[in-house]
Design a protein that fits this description.
Helix content is 16%, strand content 41%. The protein has one helix and ten strands.
């Protein structure tokens, strides 16, 4: 009887551990871009509450595809519908970005949004890709 209970308990722990591993695994972002800016090789994950504040962690390469236009490129990220965080690239170059975003008032993050933009200065509106939503249903 004790062996059977230990076997059931061990199987339960294995299932819980597997669920946590899936939640913490990396997923592809897919292509994101607009006129003059591309985000390449992107991937993301939603961290568990014990890891990195339960954050939305992302990485990829931001490329300025119109190096002669004199405009910079950037990535915008927001979590839990809060304000956007901006991560700048470099004019005429491709830069690697890796960041974590979270809401300090919550145990973990389960909603995030991301988009890629080209800064066209103060007189003209910026070009931005469509906003890509990410969700982690626990």
């Amino acid at each position: 009887m004790k062996r059977a209970l230990l076997g059931v308990a061990a199987a339960g722990l294995l299932v819980v551990g597997a669920g946590t591993a899936v939640a913490d695994s990396w997923h592809k972002i897919g292509s994101m871009g607009t006129t003059g800016a591309d985000f390449l090789e992107g991937r993301y994950r939603f961290n568990s509450p014990e890891r990195d504040h339960g954050s939305f962690q992302w990485e990829g390469k931001l490329r300025d595809t119109k190096s002669q236009d004199g405009h910079n490129v950037y990535v915008l990220v927001r979590v839990e519908s809060h304000g956007w965080s901006r991560y700048n690239g470099k004019q005429g170059k491709t830069v690697s970005l890796r960041h974590s975003n979270w809401d300090g008032a919550q145990l973990y993050t389960d909603d995030a949004e991301m988009r890629v933009c080209r800064d066209r200065g103060s007189l003209r509106p910026d070009n931005c890709s469509r906003t890509k939503p990410f969700s982690n249903s626990r």
